[in-house]
Design goal:
The structure is a single chain. The protein is built from four helices and five strands. By secondary structure, the protein is an alpha+beta fold. The protein has one domain. The strands form two sheets. Strands 1-3-2 form a three-stranded mixed beta sheet. Strands 4-5 form a two-stranded antiparallel ribbon. Strand 4 and strand 5 form a beta hairpin. The termini are far apart. The radius of gyration is 18 Å and the shape is globular. Helix 1 runs parallel beside helix 4.
Length: 147
């Protein structure tokens, strides 16, 4: 519904799209848009992103997900998808993801980092190994033993 929401039929989607596009145009500093969903069949935590035509922007887009994976035990980078196919795929009701907030708002605003964060209802299948947290203490950098 985000491609062309109706003020009468989808008032919250219509208002959300207007607010985000106006903010992005006026302030030009909206860096990230994220839509949160629960996923019943795929396990873990992962992102759906957009396929961007500019290679540099696409690298930034995917790097964000990689940084999340490096800092979150349950994030599954292997389940992330940034393909054109995932942007256009149709659901069982024939609705295309072109109308999803992630795709429609990226097209309307040009925001590089537009994602759908998917989280399984109860578990994941991957546990990441996180690097120890570094802390700065009296001018020296040390590992945090609490991690």
């Amino acid at each position: 519904m985000y491609s062309e929401p109706s003020r009468r039929e989808q008032p919250t989607i219509w208002a959300t799209k207007i607010a985000i596009t106006q903010y992005a145009q006026q302030y030009k500093n909206l860096e990230v848009y994220m839509d949160f969903h629960a996923h019943a069949s795929k396990k873990g935590v992962f992102l759906f992103g957009n396929a961007l035509p500019d290679n540099g922007l696409q690298a930034d887009n995917i790097t964000f997900a990689k940084l999340v994976a490096m800092n979150c035990l349950n994030f599954d980078m292997n389940e992330c998808n940034f393909s054109e196919k995932i942007m256009a795929i149709k659901d069982k009701n024939g609705m295309s993801r072109d109308g999803s907030s992630r795709v429609a708002l990226q097209k309307a605003t040009g925001i590089t980092h537009c994602y759908t964060l998917e989280c399984n209802y109860h578990n994941g299948k991957r546990i990441n190994t996180l690097a120890p947290k570094l802390i700065k203490s009296q001018g020296c950098i040390e590992e945090d033993s609490a991690v």
